[in-house]
Amino acid sequence: MGVLTFIAKRIALYFAVLFIGLSITFALPRFMPVNPIDGYIGELQSRASATIAPEGLAELRKSLEELYGLQGSVFEQYLAYMKRVVIDFDFGPSYTYFPHPVSSMLAEALPWTMGLLMTATVIAWCLGNTVGLVAGYFYKKRAASILEFVGILLYPIPYYILAISVLMIFAYIFPIFPLSATFPVGDMTWAKVGTILYNSLLPGLALVLAGFGWNILSMKALAIATSEEPYVTFARLKGTTHRTRMLRYVFRNALLPQVTALALSLGVIFNGALLTEIIFSYPGIGLIMRQAASGGDYNVLYGAITVSIIAVATAGLLIDLAYPLLDPRIRHK
Amino acid sequence: MNPFRQILLASAVGALWATAATAQMTDVGTPRNETLIVQTFDGRSSNATQMNPLNRYAHWRGFRELGWSYLWEMDTSTGESYPELAVGFPEVLNDDHTKFRIKIREGVHWSDGEEFTTDDIIFTIDTAFKYRDKLTNVTNYVTFLKDWKKIDDYTFEVETQKPSYDFVTRMGVYTWGSHIVWLPEHVLAPIGDEIVTYNNEKPVLLGPYTVKEYDPNGFWQLWEKRDDWERSGWGNLGEPTPKYILYKDFGTEETRSLAFVQNQYDIDTFMSPDTIEAAQKRNPAIETFAPVFPFHDMNDACGWGVYFNLQKSPYDIKELRWALALSLDLQQVGISALNGQFKSTALPVADTPVTRPIFHEPMRDFLTNLTLSDGYKPFDTSFNQELVKVLAEQGVDPEKLPVGDAIVDSFGFGWWKHDPAEAEKLLASVGIEKGSDGFYALPDGSPMVLEFVYPADWNKILQRLGFSIADSWRQAGFNINARQVDNGEFNTYMRTNARFQMTIAWNQQCVFNANWRNNWRQWSPEFVLPADSTDADQRLDGNYVRITDPRIYDLVAAGATVPTDDPKMAELGRDIQEIVVEEMYMLPLMSIPTTIPTNNTYWTNYTKADNFYALPYSWWSSFKKTVVNIEPSGK
After folding, report:
1. Which residues of chain B have a pLDDT value below 70?
2. ipTM over cut 0.85
3. What is the pLDDT of residue A1?
4. To which H or E segment does residue A53 belong?
5. The domain containing residue B573 runs over which residues?
6. Domain count of chain B?
7. Closest to A49 (Cβ–Cβ): which among B18, B176, B220?
């Protein structure tokens, strides 16, 4: 199979995944026992201590059906949705926050989510793999056990407990960081960048600690297995240094599964970090999706899930396309 | 200096600044001792940039409390309306009570200096009517008004669609704020048709505060007092004390409590009793609404109750409904779910200082003498005394328990007896008896599974309450299928006949004063749907208990022709309640316990049980009374 055929097939598969994903995305919220109009009316009544006249609600219900585009058969709605999303990449207005456009809600939230999660995921991956590699390569040494202990200690701690502990230590007992973030408004300046970094350090630390442990344990296991391979023994007999063997023989070969894991992790960051946003009062897409799911806000769910599907599918595509570059065996095949 | 160093330096300076300056300055750069800081009601807002009141706006950010002003406001300590933008009350122009002339005050100015006139009023109503099918927040007054016209700059007339003895609260404030928010014509008229999607991010307002800054991510909004606050819509109430008011979300209850202990903010909302107690131990400046049980405010306009689908079997059986009432151990439920911090009510109206003389005191004899068909008297007047006794036995500090007449003030007049044996007798009379599995079965011997739906963690107190109620009923032999649901499903469930069976809710018990029609006008045949209706266009828009009793319909209709301050109005309200109670059409439980702890470090003289000048809710427009009455502590 030629390279071009391989790439063409892989890209065709990519679009097929997107099509199926978008169709499932359209159907799923409609199976929920939630009607977005009831959700809006219920909240309107609740915040008004039930003082809205029932005749007013009846009129509002009719208006909302039109405004939300919920009239017509489900198939007609499906066609309109596919046309809007595929051709215009427009998800329409949020139902709950009508007429606020979904694309604008996502555009405001995604940079925060991506900035925090991408950085934290990459840092956790780099640190975890470095520690795991050293612990795995030198697994017979006492220091390696200590490093592994760090992984074993951190990995099983539920994220919520970890995050609250970080807050208690660094924002309450030693009030170095704020308990809840306050981001300044206005133009982007260096001072503002500094404040954003300062307010992002605690949530970032909690995320790094949460992702760190798994990377240590995973890389350590891979490094131990790889260091027992005959080609590593051969390299040792050739007189290569520990450093060379660890980095060029063990690390390179143990890296592939970890790269896959990293790519998939980066793909799912578009789902947001709901707990991080709630605990640290940090902006992002997680809370928006949570509110949309509970209120039946189809359009926001479509928008957020579509972005996520595209991200995961693209991550998969890139991994597949990049593997031949990383691994000569695949390239040769 | 290179950019990387600049960022590092800024971060370090930020950290030092935040650590060193927390005592003097707020996170948004205002002096702490000039800033009242309030935890937002709904956490983070997802539409912080939306400030156009014609659509769903970022409503928990202080607009209705600080930014807007209404024709008539409600004195929430007395339940009486008072003029705010209007001069006095409306002049009624016809016998049908459909035509009104209203005068507004001269000299009221918008925050940009323009005078507020009837041009703004006419523009607002014109706009709402013109775009009524494209706007999501005007429905209440476009279905209420029929005609309107300007007489002069300070006088206008309106005609309503139906006789409107409750005109003042329909066009002004009944409880939380007004449905009608006046718009500045000089600012918004040039926008034209774009008004339906216009965000109004730099709003020109009538209140004494303006939006100084807000977080586009929706975590906070800062208000600043106008220099010309005296010319604002409610400047005549007195000078608002704080120069700045910050609404901010401090996160989860865990982080909120830590921030509250650190004096980072002044007024919280819906913190759980356990957390408040823990915070008070670490910071004595934190106070509850009352120093004794039940500690928290119990004067919300609505109450909590169990609602049945009266159109569906077996909930259409009166004896079953009464059996559920008598099988519920409310004392135990209240202690396990709310630490005993609740105020019971057997009537479908919360027991408050406003409603007590109108409904609860006059109906005390009715409740005491109420007799079921078998001669049984179900009302327990010793409920509150027993509750005090149980709390004392559980080790509650006696100084924190009410004594004498205060017991009734704290815990209400009483509730239904906990008598599962009488419940069993009532059920047996209609052929419902316990099967071999210990659960009640239907007359034909098939299992009687009752679905009971209650909020999941989006309303933690109701979640706990719902769980405890289900448990209490199970112990009495009812096979309860208890389901916690998200708020979206909760709203759909309650409005769909084919789904709805039984739930815990509040929207049928929102009577704040003698004007009960504001809530119960929905008990009308026009809001009844077929019992099995499921289609999207057949969802209920009122009457969620599905009342079909013609006696109640007649009383509700009669109330439409009675002035709200006429004693006859209260009498009709009592008659309705007698039927609801006798038939057990719903099972009222208690006032909504609203926990609003305050922190005295920077501000004092909040409204409290022993200093009651308004309801303490920071999300009701009556919060303006707090803003005017609080005093700086001097720190």
Report:
1. 1-23, 58, 535-537
2. no
3. 58
4. none
5. 303-591
6. 1
7. B176
